[in-house]
Amino acid sequence: MTAKRTVPLSIMLIVGITLLVAVVPLLIYVFWFAGHEFTENPSDFGVFGDFVGGVTNVILGIINIWLVAYIAVKLGRREEDSEAKKHLYMLLREWNGDEMYRCRTEAWELVRQNPTTTIKEFSDDNRQESRCLWVVIGFFRDLQTAVEQGIVFKNDAIDAFGQIFTWWDTVALRGDYPKAWDAEQKWHTLKKSIASRKGDQLSIWVANASKELDGCLPPPAGESE
User: Whole-angstrom Cα distance, residue 167 to residue 205?
Assistant: First the structure.
């Protein structure tokens, strides 16, 4: 069974424009001068040629303006896509950089050693060792800010950081957001965006993160170690 061939869109556009330029002037001329007899005077054919040329130039001018605008928009979008991907790459490099790796490691160790401590309690205690936890939280706040400002595309940010964000939201914040927290709204917005785009995977991510968190919790009273 042979595959069905499709005509490229560019070829279809060229054929369509050619037919438009060739047929429209003739249709206009026939419609406008339908009641007149056919002439055998050569000078009349010169007038007809001027008419066809004038109408064709108008059509080509309109098409040219449309093509220039279309190309400009396409190039603008391509440049915007390139800049957005560049910024996303920079964020990925920052997240995987040595300094952020150290902060992530220390933040996780802090959460692991204090599994029942809420994010609000970490904030109220103002411990020096909790600084790295706030660096991690601040990274996701800045990520959402970049999305809101159009510096990074939302879907690309979610694809790159959705699972990572969900892990930290589950093990570190655990749904406990301090009131009047400057990053609260951005955190909630990012969380909702991830839930909307990754709903089918979100429950799996949360379950996996919860297992790691449960492993840090002490056993309930009356239960052996």
Answer: 7
**Amino acid code (one letter) for 111:** V
Q: What is d(CA 217, CA 114) in angstroms, rounded to the nearest whole number?
A: 9
Length of the chain: 225
Q: What's the pLDDT tens digit per position in 152-203?
A: 999 999 999 999 999 988 888 776 666 666 677 888 889 899 999 888 888 8
Alpha-carbon separation of residue 13 from 10, 57, 59, 147 (angstroms): 5, 18, 15, 36
Statement: the pTM of the whole predicted model exceeds 0.70 = no
Report whether 107 contacts 132 (CB < 8 A): yes
Tens of pLDDT, residues 14-36: 667 777 666 776 676 667 666 66
Rounded to an integer, what distance in angstroms lies between the CA atom of residue 83 and that of residue 151?
A: 8
* DSSP string for residues in 139-169: HHHHHHHHHHTTSS-HHHHHHHHHHHHHHHI
- Count of alpha carbons within 13 Å of 80, Cβ hemisphere only? 11
8-state DSSP, 35: T
DSSP state of 63: H
Q: Which residue has the tokens 């020096």?
A: 128
DSSP for 40-60 reads: --HHHHHHHHHHHHHHHHHHH
Residue with token string 């996303």:
88
